[in-house]
Each structure stands twice: as C-alpha cells, then as structure tokens.
Amino acid sequence: MQLLHPGPLVGAPIEHLRGKNMLQNKVALVTAGASGMGKAGAERFAEQGAFVYVVDRDESATKTVVDGIREKGGQATGIVVDVRDLDALKDVAEQVRKEHGVLHVLYNNVGIPGAAGLDLSEEEWNALIEINARASFYLTHYLTDLLKAADGASVIFKSSSSGLVGSPWSPLYSFTKGGLIALVRSLALAFASDKIRVNAIAPGSVDTPGLPGFFRASPEEVEARKEAFFAQIPMGRASQPEEIAGVALFLASELSSYVTGITIPVDGGLTAK
Predict the structure, then answer these.
(1) What is the pTM assigned to this prediction?
(2) Of 100 and 7, which is predicted with more confidence?
C-alpha cells in the first residue's frame, strides 16, 4: 500500500464549495477511484464537502484525481493498492482509523468485465471473484467499526444491470454482480441497528474507457456491437459517469436516510422491459 498526498483532517474550510454541503465534514472512501465511475464519484463527494480517500492501483491516475480535487478546493488523499491483497486492504482501514477514526461513506466501486464464456482458466475465475466480490466484502468488513462510529453511515456497492438480468457474454460477471445484490440485502439487515445503510447501484452501459471490454469483440467489431446494444436501451445511449455519481451522492447523503437494502438500476430503462 502506498499513501499519496496525506491531507488535512475533516473540517477545513472550503470556500469554493460554500453552499454545497451535502457531505460536509464527512469522510468517504472510493475504490477504483482514479477513473471512470469511481473518479466521477470521488469528485462529486469532494464537491459536496467530503474528505475523500481515492483508492486505486494506478499511481499516476490516482495522483491526477487527488490533485484535481485539491485544485478545486476539496480534500482528498490517494492510496495506491491492489484490492486483491487483503493485507493491503487491512492497511487501508488502519490508515483511515489513524487519520480520522470514522468513515461515513464507503463506495465499493471496484470491478472488472473479466473473461467471457464458460471456458475460463482458474486464473481468470479467481481474478473476477477476487476483484468483483471478495475485495468489497472484506474491505467492508475491515471498515465496519469505523462505519459504526459514524452514527449513520452509508455503504454503496456497484453492481450492474448484468446482475439483475442475464449476460450472454459473461456468465461469471453476472454471477459476481448478482451476488453483490444479495450481499447488499443481507448486510442491510445485519447493519440496520448500527445505523449503517447498505445499497447498490446497477449501471447499464457507461461511457468509460472500459466500456469496449464488455462487448467481447475485436476493435473493428466493437462499434457495431455498441450500436446494436444501445438500440435495445429505451433511452438509446450509454450513461455518463457523472450520471452514476449523482445516484451515488443520493445514496451517500441524508436524502436517502430511510433507504437501505435496495439496488437502483441506472440503465436508461434497459431492465424495465
């Protein structure tokens, strides 16, 4: 684990963000926070006053996101870590404990498309299970005491529309994302008395650098597959990362103070059919 840009404790004035205080004086942690939906979520949380831990394995991208948040007057620290390393995840929890002693928002955003089909190697199987499911399970476990200390925390898991309906391209991806939805329901019941809300977001297609990987095609075929898939979406397009971040902010904030155990599809109507 590598810590980037240790920052001030929560509570420092942020003049640039005056009037935007849905997460003021809150501490948030976002996994895979250096790109795509994680980056958009980290930036949105910071805009709303939170101190944000940006956790990612890409050192350069993590530094860029943290620098960008700070340049806009926000507060952030980057932690470079491979989420498959459980000891490193324990170190992440310890870092938050030492610096703040509390965590108000945990956004388990990390995930990968993984290998397609059923003819998977053991390495491919393990990578998808470890990154999409195990990492978020154990990080939540390691941070539970800090979430309890918040006296009203929010845990957000990023599932997928492929966890709500089947995926013809990657059954194992659907398996991991569907499992997160079941986990959310269970943890919502387990943590309710501790005032910890647990919910999930289920994006459909999102316009991120990783989107082509979901179409299981050569670079020449990706565009055609994207167009065919978008034609099935009632709204006719992919979402933007900022649209997912808006739902994450809702679940992180007091706007959803009586919401727990649910999965919100953010898919342009795909799973409404």
Answers:
(1) 0.89
(2) 100
